[in-house]
Request: fold
Amino acid sequence: MTRTRWVFFDVDQTLCDFATMMRRALSAMLIEIGSRWSELSGRHLPEDLEAIRNRLADAYGDRPVPLVEVRRQMFAEVLRPVGATDTEIDAITEHYLGIRFAEPVIFDDVLPCLTTLHGTHRLGVVTNGNSKLDSLGLDHFFDAEIAAERVGFAKPDPRIYAFAAESVGADPAELIIVGDSYEKDVLAAQRAGWQGIWLGREVSRTGRGRSVTCGRCRRCSPTARCSPTTRPSPRETQHPAPAGTSAGWLGLARERTSGPRQTG
Reply:
């Protein structure tokens, strides 16, 4: 069996609770917009802004999304009825970004997992998002940060996985990625010759998400044998692991990354 040299992670909804961070920032911005333009007070909910953002982002298909520009376009659309100037739209966008990255929400199982793996293996991320490791306070764990906007390819395009493998000088068979998207983080990685571990997060819309499921690996111990790339049925993802535990994904990562830390 090929020994794993690197463990990569997705970022949003894998390492950080992007959904909670985004909704918190959107809620704050709607209050700010209502205070500046009273005719817009109460007109939108955070979910409305999410829908606008998703529509704008979906237009890019599988290409990298210029995320800051999409946010700006979202606010421009919201502010169009009041004739906001470019300067005002820019200011609102910058204010949103400041709130969005001010207080990162890291899932409770992340630090124990990274601490364990960092002592034995090199770690990296492959992300389509813009939650940067330094803004999350996690950069000291990682040796590689592959972001779609910077490299020009976005998951599930296998070229981003090929780029990551080449960047770290490893054979794809020596690489694992853990992520919350079965299609982008598991199937796409497999097509590029990697191993993929599917991590399903259950996040409350009213607060910090802590529950964790890990595909078929939800019940795994560090020595369990299972198939991380077999997608579970809905029934298998109804009972998350206890809050604050690393459950199956840490166990599986330990199992599949045995051996000394690699430095090459």
About this structure: The chain has ten helices and seven strands. Confidence is low (pLDDT under 50) at residues 204-247, 257-264. Strands lie at 6-9, 122-127, 144-147, 175-179, 195-198, 200-202, 211-213. The two ends are 19 Å apart (CA to CA).
